């Protein structure tokens, strides 16, 4: 273990490590998550995504205190994630989702802090920015799920849907989050509750401003480095 941890630290703080993080997110979003209805795939996708995010969070920041905070939070979220998986009670579902959401907020703050810091524009920064954008979509999907748990009927979902099926609900909100983030908006899922509508507006605005602000910042850093 003592030999493995330094190797992981070097891996995740290099361009190869960030490329691995981005590739892992793409595999999870576009391959494993759509097949999540299969029990075996669902199990491996949960393991895969949990380990990728925890490993990334531990090694992205050089601040030891903040890194330990992220690690502790991620470990707690990981424990509740599998407690919910083994004992699917609504309390465990709600708490584990809250912890996972908080963990993603910390992680995206770490990644953006590294991306927007002073210094030359590198391939490493671009990989971090794309990973942060994808994590933002996953983060908002968890927030929508929490709103629906807190206020059932906060969203109007068209098409085949069984009330009380949490996994189907997660899948619907996962799709809806990325549709909102990219401002496509097919209209098959409509927010009704005021809190849900506010969050949808915030995600849509963030989906437009994120690339614009990021490009402006990276271009500015590139000009300064010259």
Explain the overall architecture.
The structure is a single chain. The protein is built from eight helices and two strands; from the N terminus they run ααααααβαβα. The chain has one domain (4-225): Orthogonal Bundle (Helix Hairpins), CATH 1.10.287.70. It has helices spanning 4-12, 15-32, 39-60, 64-86, 90-115, 123-150, 166-181, 194-225, and strands at 155-157, 189-191. With 226 residues, the protein is mainly alpha-helical. A two-stranded antiparallel ribbon has the order 1-2.
Classification by helices and strands: mainly alpha
Largest sheet: 2 strands, antiparallel
Task: Bin the strand percentage.
Answer: under 5%
How many domain units? 1
Count of runs of 4 or more consecutive helical residues: 8
| Average of the residue pLDDT scores | 76
Shape: globular
Distance between the termini: 42 Å
The CATH class, by name, is: Mainly Alpha
CATH architecture heading: Orthogonal Bundle
Helicity range: over 70%
* Radius of gyration, whole Å: 18 Å
Q: How many strands in all? A: 2
Major sheet: arrangement of strands: 1-2
Low-confidence stretches: none
Query: Helix and strand succession?
Result: HHHHHHEHEH
CATH topology: Helix Hairpins
What's a concise summary of this model?
With 226 residues, the protein is an all-alpha fold. It has helices spanning 4-12, 15-32, 39-60, 64-86, 90-115, 123-150, 166-181, 194-225, and strands at 155-157, 189-191.
